[in-house]
Structure formats: C-alpha cells, structure tokens
Amino acid sequence: MQVTSLLSRRTHDADPAPHHPHHSHHEGGGSCPACGHDHSHTQVRLTQTLIGLMFVINAYVVDWVVDRATLVAAASGMLGAVILGAPIVMTAIKDLRRGLLSINELVALAVLAAISTGDYKTAGVIAFFMLMGEIIETRTAEGARASIESLIKLTPTKARRVAGNTEEEVPVHELKVGDIIRVRPGDNVGADGVVVSGQSSLNQASITGESLPVDKKAGDEVFAGTINLTGVLDIKVSRAGRDTTLGRVRDLILAAEQTKLPIMRIIDQYMGFYTPLVLVVAALVWVFTRDLNRVIATLVVSCPCAFVLATPTAIVAALSAAARLGILIKNVADLELAGRLTAFIFDKTGTITTGKLAVSRLAPQEGVSPAELLRLAASAEKYSNHPAAKALAALAEEVNVPLAEPQNFAETAGRGVKAQVEGAEVLVGRAQWLQDHGLQGDFLKSVDLNETEGFSLIFVARQGRFLGWIGLRDETRAEARPALEELKAIGVRRIAMVSGDRQPVAARVAREIGCEESRGECLPQDKVDFVRAFKQQGLRVAVVGDGVNDAPALAAGDIGIAMGAAGSEVAIHSATIALMNNDLRRLPFLVRLSRATRSVINQNFVVGILFIVGGLALSAFGYLSPIVAAIMHNVGSFIVIFNSARLVRQGEELEHYEPAATPSTPAPSVPEQPITFKPQPA
C-alpha cells in the first residue's frame, strides 16, 4: 500500500496461508488488524535503517573533515547505501518473480542508478527517506487502526467461573453456555449473558457507543467487553467466544476495513500501467538530457504514495469514528453511498417508538390530585407484570411518588386488577371491567383521547368512586423529531414511516415526529413494495428498522440500517449497517460522515496528483535533486495521512448525548411530550 509495503509484505511472504479474523492478537499489540500477523520485525527494520544512516552520515563527515579520504568516504557511503537499499531491491525482485510490476521497482531503479554512478551517499539518502517514510506511514496506519482495535480488544483473557460455592479463574475460551461467571468492579465482562444476581453500572461504550453508564440488575442482558463499574454481578453465559456481540462486531469492523470503494478498485486496476508509463517518462528524460540525476529524481518523485494512500487512510479514519459511536458498516461502499441518500423510510414500532408503553395523560376527577391518582393506580398494580403496570411504576419512581403496599391483590388477565390499598378497595382496569364491578355513572364521557390512535386507557376507582383515567401509549423516541429535522436540513428529500399498526396510529406518530408521509397496516411485503416504489422514482433509499421483523424491507433498500443491534444476531445480519444503540441522531451523523469522507478523499487525490505532476515537471527540468525528490515524496504522503486523520474526531458531540432507553437499557419511561394533567368535573 505504501512505497514498498515492506513491513506487511515480509511477514505475509513467510506465511501465505490466509489468516482467520478470529485469531487472537499478540499481547502488547504489534499485530496487523487487517491480517492478524505479528509485525514485531518493525523494530528490526528501524534499527537497520538507522545503522545504514550512520554509515551515510559518516561518509559525509569524512568527506568534509578529512582531505584525501575519498576512498574511506566512498566505502562508508557504499556500505550505508547497501544496508538501506537492500530491502527495497529485494522487495522489487520478489515482485518481478511474481510477475508484478509495481511502484517498488521505481524506487529500486532509482537507488541502483545512483549506486551505478558511484554516488553512494545520494543512493543512501534516497533509500533512507523512502524507508523512513514507509515505516512512519505503516505505523501511522496501524495507529489509525488502533482506535478501531481498541474497541475489539476488550474481552478479558480470563473469567471467574462460579460452581456451587467455589470460584475458579478460567480462560475465557473455556466458557460454555449456561456457565455462571462473577464479574467484580473494574472487571471486563467475559461473555454475553443475563444477570442472575447483583446490581451494578456498566460502561457499554464499546458495544453501543453510549458514553453514560447503564444500570444493570437481575434479568438484564450484558455484553462481553463491557466494563463493570460498581457492584458485583453473577452472570449466566448465553454466548461465549466468537459468538458474542463483541466477536461479531470485531468481524464486521475488520471485514469492512478490507473491502474497497469502487474508486479504489479502479486505481488497483490501472496501477499496473503506471510503472511502465513512468519508466517511459524517465527514458525520455534520459534521451533528451543525458542527466542521470534528473532520471533518478523522476523515478523517486513519481512514486504515487500520496495518491495510493488517499482513500485507505480516509476509510480507516471514518470507520474508526463510526465504530466509536456504535455504527457498524459492513462494506465501505455503503459508507460512500450514505452521503448520496435522498430518502429514508422508517419502521415505526421499535424504531421511531420504543415499543414500550409510557404514561401520556393523567386525568383525575375534581378533588383528586394527579399524584394521588398515580399513587393509587401504581400501588394497586404493584405486583402486576402487565406493561401498563410497569409504565405506572416507572413514572411513580421518576416523580418520587411513594407507593403503598397492596393487600389481597387479584388480577384478571387483560381486564384489570383489584387490591386493598391503605384499607380501601382500588380497581384499576378497563371501563367495562369497572362497570362489571358495580361502578356507576357515565365516566367514559370525560375521555377525549381516541384509542384507535394507539392510546391505551385505564380507569381508576376507590371504594366505588371513580377517581379518573390514565392514558398510555407506545413512547416516541425523544430524539426522533430532531433527527428527522436534521436529515431534512442536510438535503434528504423524502422521509416516510411504515407500520403494521393501524393507520390512525401511524398518522398520529408521524405528526408527533414531523414526518409528512406515513402508511399503516403494512404487511412485510407491503413494506417491500413501498421501498421499491421509492426506488423506481429515482430515489436512493435507506430503510431503518429494528432488524427483527423488517429484514425483507431492510434488504430491499439501497442501504438497510438495523437499530438496537447489540445482542441481536438477526439485526446485525439483516442490514448493511448496524446501529448498536437506538439513538436516531446517528443517522444524520452517518450521512455527514460519508460526505466528509468523500470530501477528504477528493482533497487527498488532489494533493497526490499535484505532488506527482509537479514533481515530474520539476525533476525533468532539473529543478529537483534526487534527495529533495525523496523528501518531497514523503511530505505528500504525510499531508494525506494527517488530512485523513481529521475524520477520526467526527461525531464527538454525540458522545455526550444520552440516548433514549433501549430494550437492553432499563430506564424509566418518560413521554417525549410533557404529561398532561387534566382535571375532570365530578
């Protein structure tokens, strides 16, 4: 990829067998994220380069300080040139044996030409700058990858497995599904699983991209590679080793890094013609000038490192920024396509909404406070597992309403509950159920919500007196409306929402989030037809869903984006891009990142072309010495690398944003609109 690809080429020559991405890395780093091979020989190459440089410097010093020591200076310079030039020439010879003609041969010819003229010092300096540039570029590229690798090197090598009353430390690869592991504060979780006992806060940034810790308790799912911050957790292993979410994340990141944009494939296709073209140019320079220094400078400056690095460095930096925020891109072609999207189609349940009931309206009768209505209803429902009961309990906890202990609790499935709260009988449930228990009066006339729009209503009575009603609905994500507004602001022409729910429900949710187009009562095939209709209008369509029941629609779009993919194998595999959390603000960021990446790649190409064309012209006309040409070559490469590195910081503003609660992130249900307290006349 660089001038010679010496560092990686050398190891790969020794081990031609393909390396599986699951192979573990050597401790302490030093491995290539792209292939898994150890690159510990980098230090040897650096040492060799410095030794060669010492001989070249010695040649200059002897020539300058000591008169009539030309032979000593020449010997020192020749030794330095051989030490520095040998790796370059050997790599070029290996290429030729394989039938390849690459840019390695240009550098080798330049070094050999300088040596053939007896200018050993120039040959040594050229080889030194080319080698140092290659070493620095390789280490910089590995450093860029390290930000990705840091996300996927988090699985500990050992875990504490609990068997009965004993606790033993075992290698993580020995864990099996069903094992119980104990994770202490400060430890990394060794496998995916479910908490069986204990409470703690976990840092899940490595999986979901959420910067804030997430509270976990018994029954909650946890992921390998997350960090336990406070309490002790006993976890029952559900997925171990390569099957964990972290393992799949690792595979996707590494696979994406090895894919190519269409423009990269075009460059590879024509790079075989580049070296012969440069050789023709060098031959013409020699024919017209008979100046070997110009020929050498031409060969050195024509090495298109900046041009070749233009796309890969930008892609690695962009993938790093995306992975840091929990965005997994399976193929870099999708990263490029994201910037050209003109339409987004969203699923409703689990995507625009959380899929969980939340309280949206408290409507107490006159003389009853909203807090009292909530307290009695939540107290009576305390032991129910119905989603409405959980929504009431969550709101009561959020607003610090203390609950009483219910007595004689009884629940009629799908209808309501009855319990003694502070000595009084409290009924909470559907209107007909309260009427069946003797509640008198036309209390339905106070209801001004339409249940066909997706609202669930429960009515509350105490000791035969109607106290009021409570409206609940599937909670719309707090960030949905601003995310859609941002998509429109950056040029997305059409945004639509599809749902299998009733049309009035879909229309109501669409109004809340500012979506102008919605369609309800859609079967999976209807969603696919809807997506295809958009594409037939010439739109580039992204389909966003939860990945569980939206797989056909996700596959039908130009890009399929699965949300909440942490722990969901279906979600990860059903889409081209997976969001590890449910923060919809990642979508406009993805579009902006794609456009920024394309912009940086174009800038890099301009830099690469200017350095090559300008350098060739200056060399041919004798304005560029071979040594200056070597320096100029490296300057172009470094400009490209540092320009690409700017992409790594994209999305930093989202790291401090608290996303809406996800199914794996328990949090109180908070309606995205303020709860309405509507007193009713008695």
Put the structure in a nutshell.
With 682 residues, the protein is α+β, with helices and mostly antiparallel strands. Among the domains are: 6-151 and 252-320 and 595-649, no CATH class; 158-242, Distorted Sandwich (Calcium-transporting ATPase, cytoplasmic transduction domain A), CATH 2.70.150.10; 356-474, Calcium-transporting ATPase, cytoplasmic domain N (3-Layer(aba) Sandwich), CATH 3.40.1110. The radius of gyration is 33 Å and the shape is elongated.
What does this structure look like?
The radius of gyration is 33 Å and the shape is elongated. Strands 10-22-21-20-11-18-19 form a 7-stranded mixed beta sheet, with helices on both faces. Strands 13-14-15-16-17-12-23 form a 7-stranded mixed beta sheet, with helices on both faces. Among the domains are: 6-151 and 252-320 and 595-649, no CATH class; 158-242, Distorted Sandwich (Calcium-transporting ATPase, cytoplasmic transduction domain A); 356-474, Calcium-transporting ATPase, cytoplasmic domain N, CATH 3.40.1110. It is of the alpha+beta class.
What's the helix and strand layout?
Layout: H1 6-14, H2 42-65, H3 70-97, H4 103-116, H5 120-152, E1 158-163, E2 166-171, E3 180-183, E4 192-197, E5 200-203, H6 205-208, E6 214-216, E7 221-222, E8 227-228, E9 233-239, H7 245-258, H8 262-289, H9 292-301, H10 305-324, E10 327-329, H11 332-338, E11 343-347, H12 348-352, E12 353-364, H13 370-380, H14 387-398, E13 407-412, E14 416-421, E15 424-429, H15 431-436, E16 455-462, E17 465-476, H16 480-489, E18 494-498, H17 503-513, E19 517-519, H18 524-536, E20 541-545, H19 551-556, E21 559-562, H20 569-574, E22 577-579, H21 586-620, H22 626-645, E23 676-677
Parallel strand pairs: 11-18, 11-20, 12-23, 18-19, 20-21, 21-22
Antiparallel strand pairs: 1-2, 1-3, 3-9, 4-7, 4-9, 5-6, 5-8, 10-22, 12-17, 13-14, 14-15, 15-16, 16-17
